[in-house]
Design goal:
It is a single chain. This protein has 461 residues and is an alpha/beta fold. The protein contains 17 helices and 13 strands. A ten-stranded mixed beta sheet has the order 3-4-6-8-7-9-10-11-12-13, with helices on both faces. A hairpin with a 4-residue loop joins strand 1 and strand 2. 52% of the residues are buried.
C-alpha cells in the first residue's frame, strides 16, 4: 500500500485491521547545525520510501527496574540512526475520509522510551475505526537542556512539529485533521498538559487525554540553568549549543548518566522548596520561552485550551512501580521515608504524618500513598478543575498480581495490547476491561464523550 505525503511517497504494510506505516519523518534529522535547533522541514525524496520497519529511536540508555521487564512499554534501547524524528501511523483504510485521529506521546521521564514500543500497537484503534499516530521526539540533553545559542523545549517543539505534520498529511491516511486527539502518559502526559497551555498549539488538536501527568511538572529558568552548568562542567565545556554540537552523542549520554546518579546533579528545588519532578528526572519542560511563556497551569486556569475537550486521570497506586519491585517498601523505616521525601519537599515530616506515618500502617504503605498524591493525583485534580472546557476524570484501579495499580498499568488496557504486556500485567488480565478502556478512548476521540459524566471521576477496573 503506497500513500503520498507532502515530502514523498511511502509504502506501508497491510495488517489484519488496516495498514501500518513506520518511521515516517516529520522533521529533518537533528544533526550538525540542526542539533539544539528548532525542528526543520523534511527534505523531500524521490521514489517510494519503505515504511514497513520501525525506524531509529531518540538517543537514550536502556534502563531497567530490577526484577521487572518493561521492554514492552519503553522498548529495548537505542536504535541508532540520525533520522529519528518520526511517526508511526496505523489506519483502517488510507482511502477512507474523516476518521478520528489519535496522536500519542510516549513516556520515559524525558530520557527514554519510544513510540514504537510493542504496547503502543495501533491495531485496536484501527479496529474501532480510528487512525493512530505515535511520536518520537528528542529526549534528555538533546531535548530538554536549554543552552545558550540553542532553542529551548526542543522535545515539545518536536511534538508541535509532529502535530503540524498530522495536520498537513493525515488526510492521505484517511484521517480528519480537524478531529485530532492528543494523548500521552507520564512524560508524554506532562507534554500534553504543557501543550494544552501553550499558545503554539492553537488549532493543532481538538481533544486531549492526560494519563498520569499534569501541568505542574515544569521548571523555572534558575533550575534548568543549574542543570546546564552542571552538565557543561562535567564535560569541560561552556553551556552553549556551539560547544555541545562538537561533542558526540555518546559523550552527552555519559554526561546524562553522571547527572542521574544519586548526588550527581545540582539541587533542583525551586524557590518554594519543591523539586517538581520529586527526583524522577532532572529534565522537565522550561517555563519562560515562546512555547511556554507562562506556567501552563496558570495559562489553562486563565482559559488556554478551553476549546479542547479533556480527559485526565491516574492509576490508584502510581508509585508502586518505582518502589515495589525493589522490595524497598517492605523494609522502609519512618526515618528513611522522611529523608527520601526531604530531598524534594520542604515539609516532608509534616506531609507524611498527615498520611499516617507513625501509625498502624507501614512506612512503605504511607509513602506510596503520599507520593502518588504529591507526584500525580493532586496535579491531575488541579488540571481538571482548572480547565475551562469540558473535562472528564478517571482513576485506573485494576491491580496486577505483583505491581498493583502502579504507574503505567493502564497502558496495555488503553491500547488493548495485553498480549504484548505480560511483564507488566501478569497472567490472565481482564480482556473485557481492555476492550472497555480502548473503546472509551476511541469514542472520546470520535465524539468528545468517553461514556461517563463530566467532572465525576469514573473508576476503571
Amino acid at each position: 500500500m503506497i500513500v503520498r505525503t507532502i515530502a514523498g511517497d511511502v509504502r506501508g504494510e497491510a495488517i489484519a485491521t488496516g495498514v501500518r506505516f513506520r518511521g515516517l519523518p516529520y522533521a529533518a534529522a537533528p544533526e550538525g547545525e540542526l542539533r539544539f535547533a528548532e525542528p526543520a522541514p523534511v527534505p523531500p525524496w524521490d521514489g517510494v520510501r519503505d515504511a514497513r520497519e520501525a525506524g531509529p529511536t531518540a538517543p537514550q540508555r536502556h534502563r531497567e527496574i530490577p526484577g521487572l521487564d518493561l521492554s514492552a512499554v519503553v522498548g529495548t534501547g537505542w536504535r541508532k540512526g540520525p533520522e529519528f524524528l518520526t511517526v508511526d501511523v496505523w489506519t483502517p483504510d488510507p482511502s477512507a475520509e474523516n476518521l478520528p485521529v489519535l496522536v500519542f506521546v510516549h513516556g520515559g521521564a524525558f530520557i527514554g522510551g519510544t513510540g514504537s514500543a510493542p504496547v503502543y500497537d495501533g491495531t485496536a484503534f484501527t479496529r474501532g475505526g480510528a487512525v493512530l499516530v505515535t511520536v518520537q521526539y528528542r529526549l534528555g540533553i538533546d531535548g530538554f537542556l536549554p543552552l545558550e545559542g540553542g532553542a529551548t523545549n526542543l522535545g515539545l517543539r518536536d511534538q508541535l512539529a509532529a502535530l503540524r505534520w498530522v495536520r498537513d498529511n493525515i488526510t492521505a491516511f484517511g484521517g480528519d485533521p480537524a478531529n485530532v486527539t492528543l494523548f500521552g502518559e507520564s512524560a508524554g502526559a506532562i507534554s500534553v498538559a504543557c501543550l494544552l497551555g501553550s499558545p503554539r498549539s492553537a488549532g493543532l488538536f481538538r481533544r486531549a487525554i492526560v494519563q498520569s501527568g499534569h501541568a505542574n511538572m515544569v521548571r523555572g529558568r534558575a533550575e534548568v540553568e543549574r542543570i546546564a552548568r552542571a552538565v557543561a562542567d562535567g564535560l569541560g565545556v561552556e553551556p552553549t549549543a556551539e560547544a555541545f554540537r562538537k561533542l558526540s552523542t555518546e559523550q552527552l549520554l555519559d554526561a546524562q548518566d553522571a547527572l542521574l546518579k544519586p548526588g550527581g546533579g545540582p539541587d533542583l528545588r525551586g524557590e518554594d522548596g519543591l523539586d517538581r519532578s520529586y527526583g524522577l528526572s532532572p529534565f522537565l519542560p522550561l517555563v519562560g520561552d515562546d512555547v511556554l511563556p507562562e506556567h501552563p497551569g496558570t495559562a489553562i486556569r486563565n482559559g488556554a485550551g478551553a476549546g479542547v475537550d479533556l480527559i485526565a486521570g491516574t492509576c490508584r497506586e502510581e508509585m508502586l512501580l518505582y518502589f515495589g519491585p525493589t522490595g524497598l517498601l517492605d523494609v522502609l523505616t519512618d526515618e528513611q521515608a522522611v529523608t527520601m521525601l526531604s530531598a524534594s519537599h520542604p515539609d516532608a515530616a509534616g506531609v507524611l504524618k498527615s498520611y499516617g506515618l507513625g501509625g498502624a500502617r507501614t512506612a512503605g504503605e504511607v509513602f506510596v500513598e503520599a507520593m502518588t498524591d504529591l507526584v500525580f493525583r493532586d496535579g491531575v485534580k488541579e488540571l481538571v478543575e482548572s480547565h475551562q472546557g469540558r473535562s472528564f476524570r478517571y482513576e485506573f484501579e485494576w491491580r496486577a498480581p505483583k505491581l498493583g495499580a502502579c504507574h503505567g498499568m493502564e497502558l496495555p488496557f488503553v491500547f488493548d495490547s495485553l498480549a504484548a504486556s505480560a511483564g507488566l500485567v501478569g497472567e490472565n488480565p481482564p480482556v473485557e476491561l481492555a476492550r472497555e478502556v480502548n473503546a472509551a478512548w476511541t469514542r472520546f476521540a470520535a465524539t468528545g464523550d468517553p461514556g461517563w459524566a463530566e467532572h465525576e471521576t469514573t473508576h476503571l477496573g
